[in-house]
Every structure is written in C-alpha cells, then in structure tokens.
Amino acid sequence: MKSNKPPFPDEKYKPILVLLLGFLFSSCSSKNIIELSAKTYEYKYWATTGLSHSILLNGKNAFLEFRPDSDSVALKTLTNLVPCIGYLKENHIFVVGQYDGKIRWSDESGVDYINFKLLNWYISTPFLEIPSSTCHDESWVNVPKLSRSQLRKEDFILNSNELQGVDLSKFQKEEHKL
Fold it and tell me: CA geometry: angle at 127 spanning 134 and 88, to 5°?
C-alpha cells in the first residue's frame, strides 16, 4: 500500500532545507577551496618582491602567506634556505601543512593568495647546489651544479645560535633521484 505521507516529516521544513542546501553548494565555488587536513604540496620560491612562496595546488601555483601559528622552526629554516639551493628548479622542496580555504587578494603584490599553516617541509635528496663562489651573481646559470645528500647549517641564512639543537635531517627525505 502506498503511503500518502510527504517525503519530509513536516512540509513546513522543506523551504529551510532547500535554503540550507543552496547555501552549502554556493559556498563551494572555485574561490572557496576547503582544506581541513594537513597535506604535502610541492613548494616553489619566487625571487620577487611581495609574495614569493607558492605551492602547486590543483595544477596551478597558489601564493602563500604563512599563518602565525605555523611551526616556528620549520618556517624559519624554509624561509632562510640559501638561494644556492632554494632557487633551483631542479630541486624538489615540499611543504606539509594546511590552508584555511579562503583565497584572498594582495593589493601589494597584485595576486591571489592563501593563508597556509606550515607544519614541516623537506627537500628531496639528493639535491643540487650552486657552488657558493657563483651563487650571488648571474653567472650561476651556466655553472655545473654539485649533488648533495644532506643539508648543513651553512645552507641557511641564520646564525649558528638560531639553529642550535635543530635536527636538519627532518627537513630532508630520500625520494628523488637526479
């Protein structure tokens, strides 16, 4: 026997349910990407003024502003990695973290960006390094690069006190063959 009951317990709640569903679907636009759990993303540093850190997100570069609640040691070491290593496209650097899902606009840089909570980062080993004698001038483009398998304290623009007790091995991971 067929029931004559409406599909909802009470017809008066149907408009509210429709409004709630519409709100949920409309808030999931391409400008509102929701990220709840920590993930690993490929990282790139851009030698520019303004926003210079990005991750590869859905096949595109997404510029980052690091959140204040990021891991302080991970943030300090990542943002102070020497250009002789950090600028090289051949090196694969990854960040582990999460973003709040909101895309913002930077008037200063003229780009969209996301707030990113950095939990950790690592460089795939072995990685390449530009010899330090040519690192700070334009001639490094044509210089043979050195292969390295470990990070050293000299790889960061920090004084030795700032790296006291920091285990640099947590910022490297053997996974990429040159």
Answer: 50
Examine residue 18 and state whether it is found in any structural domain, yes or no.
no
Q: Which residues of 42-55 are buried (b: 16+ CB within 10 A; e: fewer)?
A: ebbbeeeeebebbb
Residue 149 near residue 130, CB atoms below 8 Å: no
Cβ 140 vs Cβ 120: under 8 Å: no
In sequence order, what are the beta bridge partners of 96?
Answer: 40, 120
Q: What number of residues does the chain have?
A: 178
Task: Specify the pTM.
Answer: 0.73
CB 35 within 8 A of CB 98: yes
Q: Give the angle subtended at the CA of 66 by the CAs of 61 and 70, to the nearest 5°.
A: 130
Residue 2 lies in a domain: no
Q: Are 46 and 97 in contact (CB under 8 A)?
A: no
* Ranges of the chain whose pLDDT falls below 50: 21-35, 176, 178
Helix or strand holding residue 14 (H, E) = helix 14-26
The 10s digit of each residue's pLDDT in 5-39 is 555 555 666 665 555 544 444 444 444 444 458 89
Q: Domain span at residue 137?
A: 37-174
**11 lies in some domain:** no
Number of domains in the chain: 1
Within a domain: 32: no
Amino acid sitting at position 2: K
